[in-house]
Amino acid sequence: MSTLPLVTVIVPCFNHEKYIQLCIESIINQTYPEIELLVIDDGSSDACPSILQKLAKQHNFDLVLQKNKGLSNTLNEAIARAKGKYICPIGSDDIMMLDKTEKQVGLMEAEPDIAVCGGNSLFIDSDNVISNKKQKFPASREVTFDNLFRFTGAGIVTPTAMLRKSVVIDEGCYDPSIPIEDLYMWLKLSHRGHRMVRINDVLIYYRKHANNTYKNVERMIKSILIIIQPYENEEGFEQVKQHYLRSAFLSAAKQKQKTLARDLLKQMSWRQRLSSNVISKAFKVLL
What we know:
Blueprint: E1 7-13, H1 20-28, E2 35-42, H2 48-59, E3 62-66, H3 71-81, E4 86-89, E5 95-96, H4 100-110, E6 114-124, E7 141-142, H5 145-150, E8 162-164, H6 165-170, H7 181-191, E9 195-207, H8 217-228, H9 237-254, H10 258-267, H11 270-273, H12 276-286
Parallel strand pairs: 1-2, 1-4, 2-3, 6-9
Antiparallel strand pairs: 4-8, 5-9, 6-8, 7-9
């Protein structure tokens, strides 16, 4: 009988028929032997359910097909179902490096106070082409609440994360009312004193394509403002809020979402409005 801890890899899937097989195969082929693979299709309308049924039959993993419940609900149900000591949620369009699990388990077993371990990623596009854009990988480091809240250092790249399941359960898992589940979790855990680290290893290929959730600017900024509100008494809260409003405004302006951009502009401080790149975009959305 193996003495290695079990790791549950959780794959929530929604309409990723083009990418799901590569994702599953990267998990099946991990160098670490003790893996429980749990895949939940959250009401896909494409060929994902049939692809997953075929893969589950071939590789004998746990597959759940359900009506759409949203990502946070799906993750909470998967965590309740998971048997592993550690959990690794990964997007169904991303790809694991084959030694990802082995590297992270080694560190988290050696340092039991680590609640979350993340790493670096390489971007790939919808055609599996690795981005030629040079990426600066931060050195291994602790990830603190200040890093995450005030943008003073690299955070956790969500698909690279391995989490200690007991900590996630003790802290109440995810809030189904908040769409941006990762920022919510990282701020909550770090604010409550749980140790989070980022290692200087590339752990995944991170997919960038037209349907990425982060491109829905209005949904993102509304969720972010809800997520940061519990920390309104933290030093620098207003600057953090203005940073997000400015970033959302620039994204909305770039995507020619004029109504949203105008609304965001009204919420920004005069200092933010008078920055050079905001002024140039403001003229375009106000005309």
